[in-house]
Amino acid sequence: MDSRTAASVVCAQNLGLTFGTADGPVVALTDVNLTVDKGDFVSFIGPSGCGKTTFLRVIADLEKVTSGTITVNGMTPEEARHKRAYGYVFQAAALYPWRTIEKNIALPLEIMGYSGAEQKERIARTLELVNLEGFGKKYPWQLSGGMQQRASIARALAFDADLLLMDEPFGALDEIVRDHLNEQLLKLWARTNKTICFVTHSIPEAVYLSTRIVVMSPRPGRVTDVIESTLPNERPLDIRESPEFLEIAHRVREGLRAGHSYE
Amino acid sequence: MEKESFILDRLLPVGTVVVALVALWYVAAVFLNAPFERDTAARNGTTITFAELLPKTMAQQRPVLPAPHQVIAELWDTTVNKAVTSKRSLVYHAWVTLSATLLGFAMGTVLGILLAIGIVHNRAMDRSLMPWVIASQTIPILAIAPMIIVVLNAVGLSGLMPKALISTYLSFFPVVVGMVKGLRSPEQIQLDLMHTYNASSAQTFWKLRWPSSMPYLFTSLKVAIAISLVGAIVGELPTGAVAGLGARLLAGSYYGQTVQIWAALFMAAAVAALLVIVVGIAHSAVLRRMGARA
Predict the structure, then answer these.
(1) Dihedral angle computed from the Cα positions of residues A244, A249, A255 and A261, in that order, rounded to the nearest 10 degrees
(2) Which helix (H) or strand (E) holds A246?
(3) What pTM did the predictor assign?
(4) CA of A84: which chain B residue's CA is closest?
(5) pLDDT of residue B72
(6) What is the pLDDT of residue A127?
(7) Cβ–Cβ of B187/A108 closer than 8 Å?
(8) Which of these, A9, A59, A60, lies nearest to A39 by C-alpha position?
(9) Choice between A263 and B164, residue whose per-residue pLDDT is larger
(10) CB distance from A237 to chain B under 8 Å?
């Protein structure tokens, strides 16, 4: 291990994952080499079947690699999960319908054994972070889809994991809500100094949010390009019309096309 | 949406059906009881007109089919006019059956839930137990009830417990089936979430599986409470008719007391309805506490 591995949040080397299915083995990921440093906002983009969600699930110890190595905070993903090293935001909000929003945010805190007073303080803090003050007593069905997803982000933030794994969290929302949430997410990232791994299939979303963009392609799932963003950290929404932004978006599109020509 | 009117939406349709059924019942009573009156008249060497026959068919001691007002009179007489401690009080008999029903229902529910927990958490139990659970219900309860009574009597158990065990035998089944489905109802994403929190199986059970299973549990309980009552009544039949609604039914059929049989039947139906309503109220109370839409 080089010195960078020790400081990095996620470090994958020659990582491969093959699913054994009824129709024979399916190679979901092959030869992935990637390092995510502390404070990075890394987006994973690619067509469906490229393994971007699978890679996120590997970091989260929801899937096991079949070859190569991966470390999370210098540990195996399982050890990192035992230490509650990350918060995971799924494609759907997955709020428990019988719990109010604040009780949903309290769920990981209850499991991790936080005291009642600390739970209250953290609920208030995270609700404020995602702009849901005053909605704590509501049930999930009383909230819009965008608000539900924000509540699920608050739940992932509640226990102060330094790493946030987000699997197409805004994929099911309309573009207006999505723009708004992207802007809020950037502010939240700036305020909390977290490391974020973000899976998306939207090029503008990936370019707007990320410090690095990992372009992936399918069959077998692999990384075809890693693009360092040259955009400043301060990003108003209209930055998306700047030539710099369009140039990065162009490079992402090229990377995606190159992956497809493999077939 | 229009505001719901109780009279128009509930009372009118239900009332219409009740009136139609009562009318049909009277017609059937006249038809079924008339041959007896004609035979009696023929034996006395007289003839009887329909006008003379009509009131008599509704006032027989042992009619083939008692008229509704006879059953109501019997119900009134055996509930209101008798002390509840009297052996001739239907309230007393209903309570005897109800206590066995409730004990059997409670045991069946606990057993059903425990079996479901085992089946959901243990592959071996899933494979080995489920076929037996289903097979247990293919045996006719009327065949097995006397055996249970006899066997339990031999080991010194009599009275409430054997009847309650027959209720348990019937009522655990819907609870097992419903709860296995209910405890498996959480979506993969909700289970993955628990996994990312490194939650223990006990935490996953209490915070996810158990709350998810509540709608399934109560649906099962509605079935279970009704068949618990059936089990308790069936359990009273082979005991030699000491007490309970089953005993009333049996004694009534021994002595041809059809009015008594019908009164006991209606009492059983009323008890069943009451029990299902109570479970239903508990169901909506729990769902309301769990934040269901109003």
Answers:
(1) -130
(2) helix A243-260
(3) 0.84
(4) B197
(5) 92
(6) 93
(7) no
(8) A9
(9) B164
(10) no
- Asked whether B221 and B279 are in contact (CB, 8 A), the reply is yes
Is the separation of the CB atoms in B100 and B63 below 8 Å? no
Q: Which of A90, A137, A141 to mutate to test the interface with B (most CBs of B within 10 A)?
A: A90
Q: Which residues of B touch A112 (CB under 8 A)?
A: 197
By C-alpha distance, which of A43, A45, A41, A83 is closest to A61?
A83
Query: Which secondary-structure segment (H or E) carries A151?
Result: helix A145-157
Candidate from A84, A94, A97 with C-beta closest to B197 = A84
Tokens for B105, please give them.
């229902």
Helix extents (H) in chain B: 6, 12-43, 50-57, 68-79, 90-121, 123-136, 141-154, 160-183, 188-196, 201-204, 210-236, 245-254, 258-289
User: How far A99 CA sits from the closest chain B CA (Å)?
Assistant: 7
B197 in A contact zone (CB under 8 Å): yes
CB contact under 8 A, A81 and B199: no
**What is the C-alpha to C-alpha distance for residues B42 and B35, in angstroms, rounded to an integer?**
10
Residue A26 near residue A52, CB atoms below 8 Å: no
Contact A235, A245 (CB under 8 A): no
State the distance between the two ends of chain B, measured CA to CA, in whole angstroms: 15
Tens-place pLDDT, residues A211-259: 999 999 888 888 988 999 888 888 888 888 899 999 999 999 988 887 7
Which one of B187, B191, B192, B193 would you mutate to disrupt binding with A, by most A Cβ within 10 Å of its Cβ? Answer: B193
The minimal CB distance from B196 to the residues A60, A91, A96 is found for A60
Domains of chain A are 1-85+204-263 (3.40.50)
Whether residue B198 and residue A141 make contact (CB cut-off 8 A), yes or no, is: no
Give pLDDT tens digits for A135-189: 999 999 999 988 999 999 999 989 888 899 999 999 888 888 888 889 889 988 9
Give the angle A50-A55-A60 at the CA atoms, nearest 5°. Answer: 155
- ipTM, interface predicted TM-score of the complex: 0.88
Among all chains, which residue has been given the structure tokens 């097979």? Answer: B135
Strand order through the sheet with A212-217: A86-89, A163-167, A195-200, A41-45, A212-217, A222-228
CB pairs under 8 A between A and B: 52
Cα–chain-centroid distance for residue A148? Answer: 17
**Strand-by-strand arrangement of the A67-72 sheet:** A24-36, A10-21, A67-72
For an interface test with A, the pick among B189, B190, B192, B196 (most A C-beta atoms closer than 10 Å) comes out as B196
